[in-house]
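Narrative progress, year one. The postdoctoral researcher (J.K.) led the effort to move from monomer predictions toward full complexes, under supervision of the PI. The following entry was the first complex the group processed end to end, covering 392 residues in total.
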Amino acid sequence: MARRGSYAKGIAKREEILSVALDLVATQGFRRTSIKDVADAVGLTQAGLLHYFDSKDELWVAILRRRDEHDNAAQWDAPDFAALLAAVVRHNAEVPGLVQMFVNLSAAAATDPEHPAHDYFRERYESTRSRMTADFRTMQQDGRLRADLDPEELASVLLAVSDGMQIQWLYDPSRDMAEHVELVTRLAMAQATTAS
Amino acid sequence: MARRGSYAKGIAKREEILSVALDLVATQGFRRTSIKDVADAVGLTQAGLLHYFDSKDELWVAILRRRDEHDNAAQWDAPDFAALLAAVVRHNAEVPGLVQMFVNLSAAAATDPEHPAHDYFRERYESTRSRMTADFRTMQQDGRLRADLDPEELASVLLAVSDGMQIQWLYDPSRDMAEHVELVTRLAMAQATTAS
DNA sequence: GTCTATAATTTGATAGAC
DNA sequence: GTCTATCAAATTATAGAC
């Protein structure tokens, strides 16, 4: 079934583009990667590639969205929320292309409301912050999290640490992003006596 | 003295360019501001403006450097380091052009070693981190800072929170950057019982 | 010190054929 | 679904005159 017209092929090609683009970004840098580079790498012309994505930025956003889906679907064997966040961040270090893309796009879209990724990021910050906030409230009721912290503020802070460490990591890959995130979660935990 | 050739005038014009550029960025957004826009605003042609700066990115970096100088020279009536950092961050909210510039350039330069601002940022992260680290060591000796924290890690984290909150603030200006930074410093202080 | 004029790309996007 | 051809185009950067 579905022999020609080949609906499935289109989907597969789209997927291929997404992962090849990601590799290219990781290899030659986000800003040095043009839509034409990606097209060449998947054996298409630039115009051919734009058949799959409306614009360059739409392509980048599609990659970010796919990452979100994977992250949400993944089983992060994490005992608690702090560990989960650290696990995600730790995983990011394995995908430098995504980090580059995230850092650059979130900055570009932040200062331009017309940017194709603006809404994506605004909504992403809002939704992850509110999801984390809810988790933190529960943890406070369970006595696992310090009661004197504002849950929403803490959520913001953790997102900020994670974003900020990505930048520092890009300048100096020897810095351990996950470890720094864990430092903050440790401080936020109840009876945080800290184990080194 | 110095009537013609007018050395002083060149300096003044340069200063004028720097501050007009900053205003433009704050008004119309970093990515929407071209070198020609700045030239128009100061009554120069684009080529005329490039007499003062070697390239567009050099102009941006010059603005950032000037900010650093001012910040370092300023008297931030701050009792301790935590308050100082918060004061700087709080001040940033008054200069949206600088925040936009910082966020965009630090991201762009992070993923491109050839970027004119790459070295500036790498060195800036390194030097501020090490200065903060030294401060924290002293504070630990004085018993003002929790002894179980790695001073350098804490320094990284605070820079990260500050950078990360700038991004969130650009997406949602109602979030208070300084307050979030203070949350972390509070947690790091010795006997952090927190006052709301 | 400032301008005119122009180069030099690069790169993203569209129209229409196959 | 993919290509050819072409546009749009915006900038940045440079050479050389005044």
